[in-house]
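Below is the record:
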Amino acid sequence: MHLPSSMRTMLREQRLRRWWVYIVPKGENFYVGITTDPPNRLRQHSSPTSFYVKGPLERDQAIRLEKKLKKCTRLEKWALIREFSQQE
């Protein structure tokens, strides 16, 4: 099927902006990553009761934020998780 150029551009832009960054506690550590499907990724992490998700973002923005969050301290990561959980 041939799509008009404007439609292809719109679909490409939508894909670029559909990334999320997340933090999931794993025992004494945290898993920080990016995904295009947060509900599925959280299920893969055994459906945690507390977590942090930020998005949608463009892929490069998500990667930058992921790298930044990986450098955060445990207390900073827990603070993000608590703050996100209170918004729900």
User: Anything to note?
Assistant: The beta strands are 19-26, 29-35, 52-57.
